[in-house]
Amino acid sequence: MNKNRTTHAMAGVLMVVFIMAFLIVTGRFLYIQASGEVDGVSLDEWAKKVRTTSYTLDAERGKIYDKNGMMLAYDMPTFRMYAIVDEAYSENLEEPQHVVDPVETADKLAPLLNADRDYLLERLNNGLSNEKAKQIEFGTIGKGISIQTKEEIDALKLPGINFVRENIRYYPNGMFASHIIGFARETNPEDDEEAEAEIEGVAGIEREMNELLKGKNGFISYQRDIYNKKLLKPNEIIQLPDNGDDVYLTIDQKIQTLLEDVLSQVDEKYAPERMTAIVMNPKTGEIIAMSNRPSYNPNNPANVENWYNDAISTPFEPGSTIKMFTWAAAIESGVYKGSDKYKSGQYQISNNITPVKDFNGGKGWGVISYDEGFARSSNVAASKLVWEIMGPETFLEYLKAFDFDKPSGIDLPGEVTGQILYNWPLEKITTSFGQGSTATPIQIMKAATAIANDGKMLQPYIIDKIVDPDTGTIIENHETTVVGEPISKETAQQVRELLVSAVQSEQATGSRFHLEDYSVGGKTGTAQIPNPNPGQPGYLTGSENYVFSFLGMAPADDPELMMYVSVKQPTLEFESGIEPGSAPVSFIFNNVMENALHYLNIDPDRGESTTNVIASEIPNLVGKSVSSVKETLTKIGVNYTVIGSGNKVVGMSVEEGTKVLPNERLLILTDHPTMPDIVGWSLRDVLKLSEMMDLETEPIGNGFVITQGIEPGSDLSKGAYLGVELKTPKELKEMEIKGDESSEAQEAEEEESADSFE
């Protein structure tokens, strides 16, 4: 009886426990059904998230063009390769979706990727042996793969090999206006693993206009089943991307190319520490060309010597180019009489002040007029104008009126303003001839627009317009802006006459700066360089330790172009009677200005042109015989290279009607293309060839080609791989020096061996 009683009691307890558990579970289900939540998580939202797949629609970054629509920067589609190594991806599928045979995969990928087969095999085997690995990547070898290479790999139908499209920012002209355009690169915030990589501007216009250029990504989302198939009612949502706006610059690709090439020639011959050049339209404020050396290739911004755009970011003591503003201030203030005489040579305002000396060691030229003093670039004349005739405070007012105390406001990032050093009497005097106080080239150019433009000082700018690429609508159009009028029209005309005398008179320091067909007005500068050693104050000594410069405008009476050139510490060959440093500076100025003025169809003002053709318009040559094309191009004075040994022309590197400058290489493609000898070519010319033949080109380094991957004379087929190694003139010179040292060492060893033998 006790046993039955116990059994019944236990059964009752179990029944109660079961009923309670049932009620709890049932209640839980009823609650979940009613509320649709578990632990605060909405089951409906969770289910949608599990069923929904989405991916980003990348916005295309805006392109950068020159003034005439030549593309300077754009997004180039490339691919990143990865391999699926998890067998689970192939379950219940007829065709395997993971890597099945790593040896075969590595053998077939290696030649297409120009990669080490053992490296690829090791990566694949490591992934297959790692149970946690789902997929693997291949480092830099698997990135930046071209469309053509991807298609070749796809054709192999290798299981498990897949690709992700990635845009890279590409600059088709290589080391071209790099400090203006800058560069952009892919970034991925390290503190946010889920953040998507995007292209961000790092320098130049890419940085300045980053928000407008990058646009806004879109997305696609839809619901799918467990096999990743879209449902019949997928609730698909499509948000189209908003592509970035296109930016058109004021620079002209032809003139910029000419400037880049001339700077490279000077870099090779004179090996200066620094160079800067700016070409401007003084009637509008537009920057037509701007470049610095050292420069860099934005496609491969590694080992960059100089990140700074020296034209706007590196203030320095400019030297005698400032004298045009000293004379302008004296004339405008009404105290200047050019025929008045003064004693040149040396000038000292008191015994406690260091005397000012003219550049010929303080010898001077005797008693001369102030007009002649300008032509001779007399420091004494400038000092007397400021200290005795005009007064230091009046001169300071004009310096500020010319905006030397503020930034130019150019639409580029990283501008640094110079400083007017004007506290002590000596500083006030030396500022008159460009020593002590500092300025940037763009500040000087901005101030000089007032002289070239009849007193009206203009805002310099480099962005011409911003365009919506989808509609073609001009969002923003930059126009000429007058920002000051420091001098009158009459004063500007008188200063221009003085500038002409500084180039064309018998006493001119700028006698090298002559153009064949155009009159030039300008002012040279020879600026001392402060000693960088804190323990040695003062300036560097030595005949080459200067910044040599020139600011010139042409035609002199009504300037259409204005150019500033500075060359720091070049290796020089001095000539008696000519201002030191004018050789490299004049080579740059004369070549660029003469050709640019003709290219822009500016009428010569020095009689009839003595040059037959400066900028040649290319006729339609396609379909004609190679011999007749050679004859035509030779007659119009075009530098050309024939690609191949065929008899018929099938393509050109420029379109019909394009104007080609004398130093620009025109490529003529024949019906039997062969590889030309491209040693010595610039990267720009190599890329022209690459575009014509659809070559997969891989440049290593900057400057000019020293080795090429395809032998000259070999048959050249579309899509071929071309590797080229390039060196800058500075690197070539260093190689030459090392080679000479090696040869000398070898000769010394041989002599020593011979002596030992004897």
From TrEMBL:
<comment type="similarity">
    <text>Belongs to the transpeptidase family.</text>
</comment>
<dbReference type="Pfam" id="PF03717">
    <property type="entry name" value="PBP_dimer"/>
</dbReference>
<dbReference type="InterPro" id="IPR050515">
    <property type="entry name" value="Beta-lactam/transpept"/>
</dbReference>
<dbReference type="InterPro" id="IPR036138">
    <property type="entry name" value="PBP_dimer_sf"/>
</dbReference>
<feature type="transmembrane region" description="Helical">
    <location>
        <begin position="12"/>
        <end position="31"/>
    </location>
</feature>
<comment type="pathway">
    <text>Cell wall biogenesis; peptidoglycan biosynthesis.</text>
</comment>
<dbReference type="InterPro" id="IPR005543">
    <property type="entry name" value="PASTA_dom"/>
</dbReference>
<dbReference type="Pfam" id="PF00905">
    <property type="entry name" value="Transpeptidase"/>
</dbReference>
<keyword id="KW-0812">Transmembrane</keyword>
<keyword id="KW-0472">Membrane</keyword>
<dbReference type="InterPro" id="IPR012338">
    <property type="entry name" value="Beta-lactam/transpept-like"/>
</dbReference>
<dbReference type="InterPro" id="IPR005311">
    <property type="entry name" value="PBP_dimer"/>
</dbReference>
<dbReference type="GO" id="GO:0071555">
    <property type="term" value="P:cell wall organization"/>
</dbReference>
<dbReference type="InterPro" id="IPR001460">
    <property type="entry name" value="PCN-bd_Tpept"/>
</dbReference>
<dbReference type="GO" id="GO:0005886">
    <property type="term" value="C:plasma membrane"/>
</dbReference>
<feature type="compositionally biased region" description="Basic and acidic residues">
    <location>
        <begin position="732"/>
        <end position="741"/>
    </location>
</feature>
<feature type="domain" description="PASTA">
    <location>
        <begin position="612"/>
        <end position="672"/>
    </location>
</feature>
<dbReference type="GO" id="GO:0009002">
    <property type="term" value="F:serine-type D-Ala-D-Ala carboxypeptidase activity"/>
</dbReference>
<feature type="compositionally biased region" description="Acidic residues">
    <location>
        <begin position="742"/>
        <end position="758"/>
    </location>
</feature>
<protein>
    <recommendedName>
        <fullName>serine-type D-Ala-D-Ala carboxypeptidase</fullName>
        <ecNumber>3.4.16.4</ecNumber>
    </recommendedName>
</protein>
<feature type="region of interest" description="Disordered">
    <location>
        <begin position="732"/>
        <end position="758"/>
    </location>
</feature>
<dbReference type="Pfam" id="PF03793">
    <property type="entry name" value="PASTA"/>
</dbReference>
<keyword id="KW-1133">Transmembrane helix</keyword>
<dbReference type="GO" id="GO:0008658">
    <property type="term" value="F:penicillin binding"/>
</dbReference>
